[in-house]
């Protein structure tokens, strides 16, 4: 019994001694071993130790001495950060070298916003080589011309060595340190730049498309959307180092504040785009005023930060306020029943999630920082937001088009009613003219009979009979003129109403009648050769064309007119111009295609040309009383 108790106590004592011996090894900084089988290793948690120098006075000799060895703290985060912008941070990592490794290795610092890093790289003889880098240095001074910071390491021994890094930055930066083989780095860098090209290419494509839409439609929402997309791209390029590499590689001063300009522009154009897309001024007047207040306050704060206190530019989380205002505006307008806001809210939901994730990571929620996806989460969310905002713009256009077509149908119905009313009035007028003609004709017969009787009875009435005969001739002329007026009224009605193609074709039934009209319109003031200014001509080889008698230049009837080189049948082209003119350019290309039995794209192309001519000649068109559409024919 005694022996068993003694053995038990001895076993416990040995266990305690063993724990005391091995516990420093457990809690000591773990080295990362260089191995050909490992292409990359990201230092995290206890593999990175840090020390904060609040006085900015510690030297490398002090930091690397044994007295300061216990001052270094193991990182409890996957990625330590420089949260105190006035202090200097020291980081150190431990690498076990392998001289037998065939690959060459380097250290990469993933955060491109670090202002100044002093690296102390151990050498084979025990000394340290000093290298400085950061975004305060010209890009050409980097060891590798890459957006991140890279340093080659000397893997020429089998020792375990400490690497020290001194960080000083004007904004919160991440100590993301990665050990990579050069082969793996090249492959990774090519892939990364490829995806960057896709990302920025999408921004340029979205921006160019909406710029074309702005030029075509002159709606400010497209311009604001273009400027917003470009601001997002500008911000991403400023933060990921692409802009510094390709746009201002030697402008170190501008590199420190470029992101602030991009953030400011992103917020402002996002709010302006929200106002225009969702018709905030009409749908929510109070929110519209509030958005204007936010824009003013953000502008004042930006100018104050830029001119007086540039340290305020580092508070990127302030952009959460404009983002939240735009997000809330979209939700409010959607609840009011405005359907295009649904895609707007969906797009901003993704952006809101990405921004919130970044904000929480910045506040110290390290478990959210789980790699490349979280690091580039805001970029992914920007892409999704751009896609859904494009859907919102398309949805808005679809709704506006539906409303426009409804209004056009109402206009067409009203024009049809007007035509019916005109037809009724014309029929009544024709009936009265016919009755009057019969009445006059009947009276003329009576007068003629009486004249015959009076002629036989009394020669004195001969003069009166001749006068009556002259009156009859005048009446016949009046009848003929009246009939001509009726035809003219009919023609004017056709030229001033929305009639179908069959009725229009009565005026211009075929190609020859259209060409005859063009020749009369084109040379109404006389012929003049465009080459030599000669005024004499012969008939050309083509019907209605004219050939100069002096130089022989032949000019067709459609040359220098809106019908030149058109593939549309000329009588249908006449009718299309007439329809666009009579509807004041409001008839859609789909309606034209339906009426003329021509492809919608052709109607859109030709119709856009006619509408542009109407816009250019609107002053002349206002002065025309009838047949104003003919003013659009000649170039």
UniProtKB/TrEMBL annotation:
Keywords: Coiled coil, Membrane, Signal, Transmembrane, Transmembrane helix. It comes from the Bacteria. Residues 447-492 form a coiled coil. Residues 47-178, 192-396 form the 7TM-DISM receptor extracellular domain. The chain crosses the membrane at residues 193-215, 222-244, 256-278, 290-307, 313-334, 346-367, 373-393. Residues 1-28 form the signal peptide. The keyword Glycoprotein does not apply. The keyword Transmembrane helix applies. It holds the Pfam family 7TMR-DISMED2. This is 7TMR-DISM extracellular protein 2. It comes from Pedobacter cryoconitis.
């Amino acid at each position: 019994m005694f022996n068993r108790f003694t053995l038990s106590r001895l076993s416990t004592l040995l266990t305690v001694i063993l724990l005391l011996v091995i516990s420093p090894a457990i809690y000591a900084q773990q080295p990362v071993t260089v191995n050909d089988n490992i292409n990359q290793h990201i230092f995290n948690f206890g593999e990175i130790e840090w020390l904060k120098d609040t006085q900015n006075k510690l030297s490398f000799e002090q930091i690397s001495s044994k007295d300061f060895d216990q001052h270094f703290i193991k990182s409890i985060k996957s990625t330590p950060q420089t949260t105190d912008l006035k202090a200097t941070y020291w980081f150190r990592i431990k690498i076990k070298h392998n001289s037998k490794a065939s690959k060459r290795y380097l250290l990469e610092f993933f955060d491109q916003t670090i202002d100044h890093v002093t690296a102390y790289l151990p050498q084979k003889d025990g000394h340290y080589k000093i290298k400085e880098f950061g975004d305060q240095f010209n890009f050409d001074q980097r060891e590798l011309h890459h957006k991140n910071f890279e340093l080659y390491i000397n893997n020429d021994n089998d020792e375990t060595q400490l690497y020290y890094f001194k960080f000083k930055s004007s904004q919160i930066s991440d100590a993301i340190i990665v050990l990579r083989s050069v082969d793996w780095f090249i492959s990774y860098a090519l892939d990364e730049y490829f995806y960057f090209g896709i990302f920025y290419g999408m921004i340029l494509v979205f921006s160019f498309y909406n710029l074309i839409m702005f030029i075509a439609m002159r709606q400010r929402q497209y311009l604001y959307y273009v400027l917003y997309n470009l601001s997002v791209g500008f911000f991403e390029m400023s933060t990921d180092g692409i802009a510094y590499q390709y746009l201002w590689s030697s402008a170190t001063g501008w590199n420190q504040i470029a992101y602030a300009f991009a953030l400011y522009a992103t917020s402002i154009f996002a709010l302006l785009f929200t106002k225009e897309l969702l018709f905030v001024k009409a749908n929510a007047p109070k929110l519209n005023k509030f958005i204007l207040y936010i824009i003013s306050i953000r502008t004042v704060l930006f100018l104050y930060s830029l001119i007086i206190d540039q340290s305020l530019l580092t508070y990127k989380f302030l952009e959460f306020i404009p983002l939240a205002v735009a997000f809330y505006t979209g939700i409010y307008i959607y609840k009011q029943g405005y359907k295009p806001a649904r895609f707007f809210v969906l797009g901003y939901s993704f952006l809101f999630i990405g921004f919130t994730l970044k904000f929480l990571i910045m506040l110290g929620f390290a478990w959210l920082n789980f790699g490349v996806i979280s690091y580039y989460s805001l970029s992914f969310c920007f892409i999704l937001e751009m896609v859904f905002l494009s859907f919102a713009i398309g949805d808005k256009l679809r709704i506006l088009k539906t409303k426009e077509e409804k209004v056009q149908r109402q206009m067409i119905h009203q024009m049809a009613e007007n035509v019916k009313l005109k037809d009724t009035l014309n029929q009544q007028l024709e009936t009265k003219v016919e009755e009057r003609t019969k009445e006059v004709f009947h009276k003329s017969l009576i007068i003629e009979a009486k004249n015959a009787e009076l002629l036989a009875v009394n020669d004195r009435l001969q003069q009166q009979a001749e006068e009556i005969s002259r009156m009859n001739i005048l009446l016949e002329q009046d009848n003929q003129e009246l009939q001509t007026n009726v035809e003219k009224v009919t023609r004017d009605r056709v030229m001033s109403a929305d009639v179908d193609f069959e009725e229009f074709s009565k005026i211009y039934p075929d190609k020859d009648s259209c060409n005859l009209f063009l020749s009369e319109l084109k040379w109404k003031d006389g012929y003049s050769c465009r080459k030599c200014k000669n005024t004499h001509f012969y008939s050309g080889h083509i019907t209605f064309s004219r050939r100069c008698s002096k130089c022989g230049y032949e000019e067709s009837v459609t040359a220098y007119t809106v019908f030149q080189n058109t593939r549309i049948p000329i009588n249908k082209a006449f009718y299309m111009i007439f329809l666009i003119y009579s509807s004041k350019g409001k008839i859609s290309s789909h309606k034209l295609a339906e009426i003329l039995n021509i492809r919608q794209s052709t109607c859109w192309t030709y119709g856009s040309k006619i509408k542009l001519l109407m816009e250019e000649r609107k002053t002349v068109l206002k002065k025309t009383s009838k047949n104003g559409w003919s003013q659009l024919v000649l170039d």
